[in-house]
Amino acid sequence: MKEGSREPDPGARTSEGTHVFKTVLMIEKALSDADVELVTTLHGEEKVSFVVLMQPRGKQDELLRALDDVALGHLDKAVHEHDEGEEEAPTLAGESLEHSLRHLQRAGAEAVGEVVGAHPLVRLREVVEENRADEVLVLTSPHFVEEFFHRDWASRARHEVGVPVLKLFASEA
Predict the structure, then answer these.
(1) Cα–Cα distance between 4 and 68 in angstroms, integer?
(2) Which domain of life is it from (predicted)?
(3) pTM, whole model, 2 decimals?
């Protein structure tokens, strides 16, 4: 950094006089049209910049997902939960992330992102700090069992980051 220059204040106004709201968006599947509209309109007319963290659901959550499916009446999903190809997961996660980033950019938002690996909450904290984020949005399907035991991403993230964490439900589309 040059002498005399300083990092921009995340709450500062841009040259156009508008605030750019910095949001870290945690997702577990590709964003739908309804999801993009939801997250890009939360702050009205303010510009929004997203860092998207794609956290695909892994084997470690298989039992909880099956219990959620039963609780939601999706018995067919619960029965076939283990049939999902784990070797396809990284490719699918990357494609879902790219789709979501393009979708957000077409809606007029700045968006970058990454697929998160083994320690998603550690990476979330790092991304919030690196980007001086204003908030974290966790866009997820309902996971009633995890929520009951406070093991869902939003509950866990609230203990890791020093910014507001808002949980939103993704559309089923």
Answers:
(1) 55
(2) Bacteria
(3) 0.72
24 neighbors 127 (Cβ within 8 angstroms): yes
In this structure, are residues 109 and 49 in contact, taking their beta carbons and an 8 Å threshold? yes
Contact 131, 21 (CB under 8 A): no
Long-range interactions of 43-48: CB distance < 8 A, separation 24+: 45/18, 46/18, 46/19, 46/20, 46/21, 47/14, 47/18, 47/19, 47/20, 47/21, 47/108, 47/109, 47/110, 48/20, 48/21, 48/23, 48/109, 48/110
Name the amino acid, one letter, at 142: P
Supply the angle between the helices 89-106 and 33-40 in degrees, to the nearest 10. Answer: 50
**What's the half-sphere exposure (Cβ side, CA atoms, 13 Å) at 86?**
7
Interval 137-148 mean pLDDT: 70
CA-wise closest residue to 114 among 71, 52, 169: 52
Residue 141, classed as helix, strand or coil, is coil
Indicate the average pLDDT of the chain. Answer: 76
Q: What backbone torsions phi and psi does residue 112 show, to the nearest 5 degrees?
A: -135, 165
CATH architecture, domain defined by 20-58+89-169: 3-Layer(aba) Sandwich (3.40)
Task: Measure the CA–CA gap between 92 and 105, rounded to whole angstroms.
Answer: 20
Q: Predicted confidence band at 6 (pLDDT cuts at 50, 70, 90)?
A: very low
